[in-house]
Design brief:
Distance between the termini: 21 Å
Order of helices and strands: HHHHHHHHHHHHH
Shape: globular
Strand content: under 5%
Structural class: mainly alpha
Largest sheet: none
Radius of gyration: 20 Å
Oligomer: single chain
Helix content: over 70%
Number of helices: 13
Number of strands: 0
Length: 302
């Protein structure tokens, strides 16, 4: 890559990440619209329609060589199968959380995800943690433990969402995959199981698709578009910007989720939530301040 291409690529990574997190932040509204279907049916439609859309994009954008490179490598296929399981787990937990009145805890999961990414960045990519970053992790950990004290159990939804997606980001950073071709392979690997499940629902008279109305069918098909766009953007960002910086940018996602959960869905924001969110926000504020301070110092040195 030439020196003239590098700045454009560096700028494109953050822009792609920003777009992905804004879309994800408002995705809960869409899941409410398709709440007439069960979580696993919604998940299956996300996978099937995303596979169809990304396959079209692979051919339309001339990415057949990139696709062939992925499916020709057993190691790459193995990594993409692992990443597909991770993201599918994240998807179904989030779908269930939104439609079971747990959107607030889901937003907490995406608030603490930057700290999980920070830790994984240290483990897998050698990105060092300074004292301020370790302090921010400690503060957020206390916030999560606060809910354990108040409710007697850890916020498993939040912890599962953050951990699964952070590991998904790790895998996608390891895989030299074109974002669109990579997402197609991930969805294609899960499509057979998804189709089998949809057929099983139909035979038992429990399938929503094709049995309620055209508008509902269109919403389920639309899951492919809503799923593909942000994931392609995220995969591109994960390969073209610092991993910890990607985690920092994602604050916008849970902030939008938080506002929607309280102001639109009307979920209760208790004293326990206030304490936890305050600690998490303080921890993330400390982390953000340290990142900005470091960036200024690096600019001065350069």
């Amino acid at each position: 890559m030439s020196s003239t291409e590098k700045p454009a690529l560096v700028g494109a990574g953050p822009l792609a990440g920003l777009g992905a997190f804004v879309i994800w932040g408002t995705f809960g509204l869409y899941f409410k619209l398709v709440g007439f279907a069960g979580p696993l049916e919604i998940l299956s439609h996300r996978i099937v329609w995303s596979a169809a859309l990304t396959l079209i994009l692979v051919f339309a954008l001339g990415k057949r060589k990139q696709l062939w490179a992925l499916i020709s490598s057993s190691r790459t296929l193995g990594l993409l199968f692992l990443s597909s399981l991770l993201v599918a787990g994240n998807w179904v937990i989030y779908i269930w959380a939104i439609n079971s009145g747990n959107a607030l805890e889901a937003s907490l999961g995406y608030y603490i995800m930057p700290l999980v990414m920070l830790i994984l960045g240290r483990i897998f990519f050698g990105e060092k943690l300074n004292r301020i970053q370790m302090l921010s992790v400690a503060i957020c950990t206390v916030g999560v433990l606060n809910l354990l004290v108040f409710y007697g159990h850890l916020p498993w939804i939040a912890l599962s969402l953050s951990t699964l997606f952070a590991f998904y980001g790790v895998i996608r950073k390891f895989v030299p995959a074109d974002p669109i071709a990579g997402l197609f392979v991930e969805c294609a690997l899960l499509t057979p199981a998804s189709l089998i499940y949809l057929v099983w629902l139909q035979r038992h008279g429990e399938l929503a698709f094709g049995n309620i109305g055209i508008e509902q069918d269109a919403l389920l098909i639309g899951l492919g578009i809503c799923t593909t766009i942000p994931l392609v953007l995220f995969a591109f960002a994960a390969r073209n910007m610092k991993f910890s910086a990607l985690g920092l940018m994602q604050y916008l996602n849970p902030t939008i989720q938080f506002i929607i959960a309280v102001m639109v869905f009307g979920e209760a924001f208790t004293t326990a939530h206030m304490v936890t969110y305050t600690l998490v926000w303080i921890g993330l504020g400390v982390y953000s301040w340290d990142n900005l301070r470091t960036a200024r110092q690096n600019r001065r040195k350069s």
